[in-house]
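[step 3/7] fold_predict: job queued, chain A
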Amino acid sequence: MNKILIANRGEIAVRIIRACKEMNIKTVAVYSEADKDGLHTRLADEAVCIGPAVPTKSYLNMKNIIEAACITKADSIHPGFGFLSENSQFAKICEESNIKFIGPSSDVIDLLGNKSNAKELMKEAGVPVIPGSDGSVENVDAAIKIAEKIGYPVMLKAAAGGGGKGIRIANNKQELEDNYNIVKQEAKISFNDDEIYIEKFVKNPRHVEIQILADEHGNVIHLGERDCSIQRNHQKMIEETPSTAVDDKLRKKMGEAAVKAAKVANYSSCGTVEFLVDSDKNFYFMEMNTRIQVEHPITEMRTGIDIVKSQIKIAAGEELKIKQKDVEFKGHSIECRINAENPKKKFMPCPGKITGLNLPGGNGIRIDSAIYEGYTIPPNYDSMIAKIIVFGANRNEAVSKMKRALEELVIEGVETNRDFLFEIIRNPDFIRGNFDTSFIEKKMNN
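[step 4/7] structure written:
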């Protein structure tokens, strides 16, 4: 690979550009009119405007992105996360344009992108899945029959879903009837696909995912787990590795299941297999994300493996140099997502100009961000503006470092969720590792 176009913005675009620079690969940034002063446009070797601020006319505009790649003679496209990263049509257009899509093939994205189909594939492979419908449900009567068979509460979920959208819980028949069409509408609006499926709602589980790397030669390894249970409205806020809910025996089983999932799907690239873990340490497949994850840095901190560089090398056809037995897990890592939002006003997004900035530093602290003093956060995109990642010899040290890092962080001019995250980190239950996906709802007075 000689030149990679990064079809994204913000901190993930910066992250990818940095990896490319270290690999002596030329980079092309694309930007919307709202992002003309974005840090990624300054760090890349070239930058091309691809449209107005509205994502559908810029970062989701396949034609403009492909044209930008052709004009700049980029031989590859890295989609980052969000936007077109899990869009099989975009991956196919790249393939047809003789541009390498840095991710799995369009067929694999298509296969795993439909959550109900992915679930059926995992069942066939012997990967534990949550009881539910065999594929999509056609109507509300079919949904009621399945719910009565597996027992309430149940979840109605968009088949093409992701990012916490298109999900509703029904505790009884009436709630199921009330929510069925709502979820279909949400699915249609968010994913242009109104297929939904139904599954048993696992009460108060841990959300634990396994990072995998798979090359184009059939080699697959896993890089351990990440606990993503601290979340609000299905949106992750704090992630850590290792999980306090996972022991060595369970880690081995989950890792083997994730590798099996990748192999049965004929997967290549980096990817993440997401599971729910109940209080009895049973784990169930939820979905497979066919892209780099927001929280990938904590795995990098703990294993010393650069996931973005690995992803690029895999796309270039290289074999994995590291075997499963060579993966070393050291210490503990935690990530906090810093969002420009006001927790006191129902987490309302707070775009605007950053008038003052101090980012924390020191041993074992990494900041992934694209903000700088004087930068104006546009109102058109996700409110995440930075990630603080810490590494410690053990969990207590990592928690202490995160406290110190959040104390040092200063972002003036806009509201952020810093103080809210600080309260979570200081919470006695969090410190003890005693939490699940309902933690914020139960413990935080938001």
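[step 5/7] annotate
The mean pLDDT is 95.
Residues 173-191 form the longest helix (19 residues).
exit 0
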